[in-house]
Amino acid sequence: MNDIEEIIQALIEFRDERDWAQFHNPKDLALALNIEASELLEAFLWKPSEQADIDKVKEELADVFAFAFLLAEKYDFDVKQIMLEKIQKNALNYPVAKSKGVAKKYTDL
Fold first, then answer.
1. Alpha carbons 12 and 43: distance in angstroms, whole number
2. Residue 94 neighbours by CB under 8 Å, 6+ apart
């Protein structure tokens, strides 16, 4: 079992001990993911990023990961595989020669 699988298994055990699987449909997991991402943003609101409460950032980032992993599990996605596929796709969309040091969307390169 790799690290990601271990995390997902721990999340499933936590969820199942509380009988929460009934609430974890794809729509609600996606909504929860978005809400947690917003709470992560709140840690940076109205201050320079270096002044963000690092413990709050870690906690909210963990929540983002938790719902993302649970959503991936719901669809039986292999997290490593979908991430590597996305990196490959991004490499095609953002070739180094055009995108290095440039903060533009691939459609604007």
1. 27
2. 106, 109
